[in-house]
Amino acid sequence: MKTVLLHDQPLSRLSRRGRRPAEQTGAAVALSDVRKVHGRGDGAVVALDGVSVVLERGSFTAIMGPSGSGKSTFLHVAAGLDRPTSGSVALGDVDLGKLGERRLTILRRQRVGFVFQAFNLMPTLTVAQNIGLPLRLDRRRPRRADLRTAAERVGLGERLRHYPSQLSGGQQQRVAIARALITQPEVLFADEPTGALDTRNGRAVLALLRELADDGQTVAMVTHDPAAAAYADRVILLADGRIAGSLDHPNADEVAERLAHLGD
Description:
- By secondary structure, this protein is α/β, with parallel strands linked by helices.
- It has eight helices and twelve strands.
- It has helices spanning 71-78, 101-111, 127-137, 144-153, 169-181, 199-214, 226-229, 252-260, and strands spanning 5-6, 9-10, 27-38, 45-56, 60-64, 86-91, 94-95, 112-116, 187-191, 218-222, 234-239, 242-248.
- A hairpin with a 2-residue loop joins β1 (5-6) and β2 (9-10).
- α3 packs across α4 (144-153), α3 runs parallel beside α5 (169-181) and α5 (169-181) runs parallel beside α6.
């Protein structure tokens, strides 16, 4: 593996799975007794109910559970896209609850990356322009060398001038990942990143996420697919908004078995 440079700083430090450098240890994201309630009164729905989790720096964590278990709410709260009803969420040493909306928006833009099931690429922009969009939104001018390096990191170095319509679904998702990485985020959040892809392209995207984690990038991924979760270092299981267990370095069969017996 190679170290990739963006803005003259390493995008990630080389490491082996399970053997990360000392500076990569500690909490990238910490949720403490987080509760999230949607609605009020008789119509209130508890999406998260007393969740406490630490996502370690340089780790690849999969969040799983049945429909309605709180997976997406977990990711949105952990990423600062939504605020908890109670409890606290910290990104590194920053308590997100102490930030106003403007400062929270700036923090998300500069320190967090997002990849979703829908690629959300701008069809009228080239690959290079799509990748550089977060920097432009932050009023920074992307450097050509940085754009090329980010594209090469996801295997699209020769596609910078192409438009999304000229790419396969897997390639479009790779552009979305490069776009998420261009700001050198502390954490990359992925919500069902392979949900719109066929098996071959899905595996390629998961292998890329695994490689990023091996290189020191913190990755948190919501998925319903046990085979996808098997790429992670740890699987966190949710049921009815609560932590229902976790698995370290599991295979797909082990994940599927635990999912089948949630609530037993």
